[in-house]
Amino acid sequence: MLTKRIIPCLDIKDGRTVKGTNFVNLRDAGDPVALAAVYAEQGADELVFLDITATVDGRKTLIDLVRNVAHTINIPFTVGGGISSVADVSALLNAGADKISINSSAVRNPDLVNELALEFGSQCIVVAIDTRYVNDEHIVHTHGGRRPIELRTIAWAKEVEDRGAGEILLTSMDTDGTKAGFALELTAQISGVANIPVIASGGAGSMEHFVDVFTTGKADAGLAASIFHFKEIEIPMLKSYLREKGIEMRI
Questions:
Q1: Do 52 and 92 contact (CB within 8 A), yes or no?
Q2: Which of 151, 140, 100 shows the shortest CA–CA distance to 122?
Q3: Among 20, 77, 79, 80, which residue carries the largest CB count within 10 Å?
């Protein structure tokens, strides 16, 4: 059985880690370099760094901050925010990222997924999908969740896989920051149609929620932010708990 992954997420705004609820009401959660070091030491399987206002601000990801985080950790490191070209990806990989995450730029130009997968390999390309339930349908949103798009979430997930994405980072805007649990039904649907790993994000509030997302949701990885940033759950404790529940973990 493949091991499941626990992934802390650093949402970055103005060089600081922030966390909100349903993508709004952001509050400071600390220094990203210091947090990254703690998570690597605690046994996080990977780290995700998302410059959440890069696309809205019309700028590139904070390269120097990416470099500082990369120098601090020894675990796989995914970076997203404001990425729209081969040159952007090259710069981030040279700064120490292992994988890159694209969202708004993939929706705007789906051929970018093909281009990046061909240039760097699918294993390097994560497509992030921010989704909200609107009028009885799961709808893709871009620009940090600010802009609804005429794309259905499940169909888009399948399309990005066909175009060469190596992973899907699925964030439910409805559950994000609520600590009420992941969007299990949607996660299971995406996991069912996709033959690539699905990272579930949005809603983690307890260790039981991770059991649910790995079993009912069929996710390959569980991503969370506030419960780790504010020390509500420690990663070693979470991994031990999951192993006791029969879920394979790398300790």
A1: no
A2: 100
A3: 79
CB neighbourhood size of 2 (10 A):
7
Q: Are strands 77-80 and 99-102 parallel, antiparallel or unpaired?
A: parallel
Can you give the pLDDT of all 251 residues of the chain as single tens digits? 589 999 999 988 877 887 656 545 566 667 899 999 999 999 999 999 988 666 566 666 688 889 999 999 999 999 998 899 999 999 999 999 999 999 999 999 999 999 999 999 999 999 999 999 998 899 999 877 778 888 999 999 999 999 999 999 999 999 988 899 999 999 999 999 999 999 999 999 999 999 999 999 999 999 999 899 889 999 999 999 999 999 999 98
Of residues 45, 51, 88, 130, which has the active-site annotation? 130
Q: Which residues contact 144 (CB under 8 A, 6 or more apart)?
A: 23, 52, 53, 55, 56, 130
Tokens of 3: 């091991």
Q: How far apart are CA 177 and CA 84, in angstroms?
A: 27
Confirm whether 45 is a catalytic residue: no
Nearest to 148 by CA among 172, 136, 130: 130
State yes or no: is 31 an active-site residue: no
Assigned fold of 5-244: TIM Barrel (3.20.20)
Residue the block writes with tokens 């809603």: 203
Structure tokens at 107: 């929706």
